[in-house]
Design brief:
The protein is mainly α and 188 residues long. 66% of the residues lie in helices and 7% in strands. Strands 1-2 form a two-stranded antiparallel ribbon. The chain is elongated and about 70 Å long. InterPro entries: DUF1028, Ntn_hydrolases_N, TPR-like_helical_dom_sf, TPR_rpt.
C-alpha cells in the first residue's frame, strides 16, 4: 500500500484514479486456510481508491490477518514464533489505535485467550470490546475466557454469570462457567 501511496504522491496514473487492489499469496494463507490468498482487497469506482484501500486494510488486518497468522503458527511449527509475534504486533497495534470495533477486539481477545499468551493485552482487548458492546453476551464470554487465561478464575466466573444473565439457555456458556468454577475450586 505504501508503494501505491508513493505512486499517487508522484503523480499517479495519468488516466486518473478509479481503483486499487492488494493481493498477497501464501500457501493456505487465506481465510481458514481454504485458499492461498492471505490478502485480497479491492477498491473499485472510488475517487480516492488508494486512500480507501488503506482504510479497508487497517480494519481488515485485525479481523483476518491476525487469525490467519495464529492458524499458520499451528500449521507450521518451525515458524510458530514468527507468526505469533506478527499476531501479537497486530494486537498491540489495535490496542494503540482509535479503532471502535467491538468485533475486532473480541476476535483478537478470543484468539489469544485460547492460546493463553499475552494475558494482559488479551484482557485489555476483551475489556475494550466489552466497553464498546456491554450487552453482547458473546463478548462478555470472551471477557470471562480472557480472565480465565490470565489465571483470574474468580473474575472469569463472575463475567460468565453475567453472560448467562443475558443468554440463560446458552449451553456453551454453561460449560464455560463449569470450567471456570472447577479452576477456581482447584485454586482454593
Amino acid at each position: 500500500i505504501s508503494a501505491l501511496e508513493s505512486g499517487e504522491a508522484a503523480g499517479g496514473d495519468r488516466r486518473g484514479k478509479q481503483s486499487a487492489s492488494l493481493v498477497v499469496i501464501r500457501k493456505r494463507g487465506g481465510y481458514l486456510g481454504v485458499d492461498d490468498r492471505l490478502v485480497d482487497l479491492k477498491v473499485v469506482d472510488n475517487p480516492e481508491p488508494v486512500k480507501e484501500l488503506r482504510r479497508q486494510y487497517e480494519l481488515w488486518q485485525f479481523a483476518f490477518l491476525a487469525p490467519s497468522y495464529l492458524r499458520l503458527s499451528e500449521e507450521e511449527p518451525d515458524k510458530k514464533d514468527v507468526f505469533i509475534k506478527r499476531s501479537h504486533a497486530l494486537l498491540l497495534k489495535a490496542l494503540e489505535s482509535d479503532l471502535e470495533s467491538p468485533e475486532v477486539y473480541n476476535s483478537l481477545a478470543w484468539q489469544f485467550a485460547l492460546l493463553k499468551k499475552y494475558p494482559e493485552e488479551t484482557l485489555e482487548a476483551a475489556k475494550k470490546a466489552h466497553e464498546l458492546a456491554p450487552d453482547d453476551a458473546n463478548i462478555i464470554d470472551t471477557y470471562a475466557e480472557s480472565h480465565y487465561a490470565a489465571g483470574k478464575y474468580g473474575k472469569a466466573v463472575y463475567w460468565e454469570k453475567e453472560a448467562l444473565k443475558i443468554e440463560p439457555d446458552n449451553e456453551f456458556f454453561k460449560k464455560q462457567l463449569q470450567k471456570f468454577q472447577e479452576a477456581l475450586e482447584k485454586e482454593d
